[in-house]
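Section 5: illustrative case.
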């Protein structure tokens, strides 16, 4: 499905279980799209109204070349998107954010505390003072101009995001290459990268949401954003529950889908 925001900007999203009263928004990470969530949103739609959005600048959403893709801008984008799909400011919502999406989810929760029912952060950025080596490789791969070298670099990076390289599905390499080649995509990637990997979240502001029920999930073998960052979030969000997923990298819901689904479902119905 598509919805238009602002001056005719088309935003791609998927929606399941629209008749259910509790809303869940899934926000993907850097360079990804709503496809990364596999069938988790649909599986949860028996009890919840689930929405997975392609962030502006990513996936099949429009990619304006003039934008500065800051965390604050993404948070404002989420607000506009929710209103456009008729989720009002006074309606409670659960937000699930992965990587860059986790940083955006936390920022949105801080700015809209009364609207947040529960918060789930998965291998979230927000604690980085500078890019990790694998993040630097990710940026280099995304911006590579030579087609052959780009394919090799992207394949290597996407393999390194997993706990086991053989788990990479080749079509995801093709999807990434196709998307990053669209007009405005490289600018969006680089701008979001710079704004999310060198400016950590304000800890005093993050503490404002310590009473919101929060689940922190992290892949034990995450080489992009180490699992030690889960403890840093926990130090501030005292009431949060932390789950480390064994034999999983940066996207544990992709490698251990059933396990992560059950953990999320249990947290949501508690």
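Designed sequence:
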């Amino acid at each position: 499905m598509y919805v238009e925001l602002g001056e005719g900007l088309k935003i791609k999203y998927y929606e399941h279980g629209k008749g259910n009263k509790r809303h869940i928004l899934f926000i993907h990470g850097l360079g990804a799209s709503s496809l990364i969530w596999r069938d988790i949103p649909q599986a949860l739609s028996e009890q919840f109204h689930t929405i997975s959005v392609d962030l502006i600048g990513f996936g099949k959403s429009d990619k304006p070349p003039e934008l500065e893709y800051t965390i604050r801008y993404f948070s404002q984008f989420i607000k506009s998107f929710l209103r456009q799909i008729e989720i009002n400011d006074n309606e409670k919502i659960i937000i699930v954010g992965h990587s860059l999406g986790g940083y955006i989810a936390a920022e949105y929760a801080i700015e809209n505390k009364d609207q947040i029912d529960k918060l789930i952060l998965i291998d979230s950025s927000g604690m980085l003072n500078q890019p990790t080596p694998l993040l630097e490789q990710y940026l280099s791969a995304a911006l590579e101009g030579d087609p052959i070298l780009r394919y090799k670099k992207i394949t290597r990076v996407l393999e390194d995001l997993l706990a086991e390289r053989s788990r990479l599905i080749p079509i995801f390499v093709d999807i990434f290459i196709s998307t990053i080649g669209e007009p405005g995509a490289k600018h969006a990637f680089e701008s979001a990268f710079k704004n999310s990997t060198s400016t950590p979240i304000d800890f005093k502001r993050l503490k404002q949401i310590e009473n919101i029920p929060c689940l922190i999930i992290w892949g034990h073998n995450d080489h992009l954003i180490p699992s030690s960052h889960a403890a840093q979030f926990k130090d501030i969000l005292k009431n949060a529950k932390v789950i480390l997923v064994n034999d999983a990298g940066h996207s544990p819901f992709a490698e251990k889908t059933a396990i992560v689904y059950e953990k999320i479902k249990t947290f949501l119905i508690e």
